[in-house]
Design a protein that fits this description.
Largest sheet: 7 strands, parallel
Shape: globular
Helix content: 25-40%
Structural class: alpha/beta
Strand order of the largest sheet: 3-4-5-8-9-10-11
Distance between the termini: 47 Å
Bound molecules: NADP nicotinamide-adenine-dinucleotide phosphate
Number of strands: 11
Length: 292
């Protein structure tokens, strides 16, 4: 019988909670699994034992929200999640995605054919050893397939009980509004971090409509983590690491923000999760917003 691991959860909880779709509470500072694969998000990770340790340590540190995708590996990250965490504690929420196919390291091709999306949902259910996926995200809109057909298939999977909530990834406000005519959309996942803020209008739309905003590349793939990077000087004033500042800035930016920093290393994970307890004042937030 899965149990809650609340007793061991402290650090991540300081980031507060957000209820996805109004009924799926998660601790806001989560974890993204894309780094748990080989070079170019292809194949097995260099150190599979460390990958399992990272996932288990994340749970110990209070992370409840895990982002993954069928295409990470492909299949590798989902299988690692099940290997490390199944049977899942009651409060663990796994968000997966479908809609990007892989032809080799670093190559991603959108395929939004409804039959394909359904197949990938079935395969994710099998790999994750779940009866229902809590959050199923359309990884990319396929411009060769009508949006209504892609989101419509996710809606059908939801109606059949295979999917609890539906999310989108890399969309603009118009696409989000079109999709919401077909199905309830509870989250979007777009590139966003202190140094890359093109998705501001989408974030504001999400805030107005209580839709979760999941920023991918929250550390700008490590650029914001560097000790000689754009946050280095500010980090010394805050007695924090550059990564912690980048994550604290995201958490302060909006209550609908659910950062999912990725790492393949337990020590980086521990350091990143400690950002949950780093609260920036309004002045500090403004200064960082202008500094990068
Ligand atoms: N929807 C989409 O299209 C999409 C696209 C990309 C990513 N994502 C999701 O977003 C998640 C986050 O993105 P990401 O993992 O690519 O990028 P990220 O979180 O911005 O950065 C990860 C990189 O930063 C390094 N790093 C992490 N913590 C560090 C620390 N404390 N000190 C120094 N370096 C550190 C990692 O290296 P180490 O392994 O050495 O720590 C890794 O190279 C992914 O895991 C995935 O779930 C979604």
């Amino acid at each position: 019988m899965p149990t809650t691991s609340q007793s061991t959860r402290i650090p991540a909880a300081a980031s507060g909670t957000y209820s996805i779709g109004g009924d799926l509470p998660v601790v806001r500072l989560g974890y993204g699994t894309m780094q748990l694969t080989g070079e170019g998000v292809w194949g097995d990770p260099k150190d599979p034992d460390e990958a399992v340790r990272v996932l288990r340590r994340a749970v110990e540190l209070g992370v409840t929200f895990f982002d993954t995708a069928d295409s990470y590996g492909p299949a590798v990250a989902e299988e690692l999640l099940a290997q490390a965490l199944h049977p899942y504690a009651e409060d663990i929420v796994i968000a997966t995605k479908a809609g990007l196919t892989r032809q080799g390291p670093g190559i991603w091709t959108p395929v939004g054919n409804p039959a394909y999306l359904r197949q990938q949902c079935e395969l994710s259910l099998r790999r994750l050893r779940l009866e229902r996926i809590d959050l199923f995200q359309l990884h990319r809109i396929d411009s060769d397939v009508p949006l209504e057909d892609q989101v419509g298939e996710l809606r059908a999977l939801q109606d059949e009980g295979k999917v609890r909530h539906i999310g989108l990834s890399e969309v603009d406000v118009d696409q989000l509004q079109q999709a919401r005519k077909v199905a309830p959309i509870v989250s979007v996942q777009n590139l966003f971090n202190l140094a890359q803020r093109d998705a501001e209008p989408l974030l504001e739309h999400c805030e107005q409509n209580d839709i979760a905003f999941i920023p991918w590349f929250p550390l700008a793939t490590g650029e914001l983590s560097k000790h000689d990077g754009p946050l280095a000087e500010a980090a010394t004033h805050h007695d924090a690491t550059p990564s912690q500042l980048a994550l604290a800035w995201l958490l302060k930016r909006s209550p609908v923000m659910l950062p999912i920093p990725g790492t393949s290393k337990v020590d980086h994970l521990e350091s990143n999760i400690a950002a949950a307890g780093l609260e920036l004042t309004d002045e500090e937030f403004q200064a960082l917003s202008q500094a990068v």
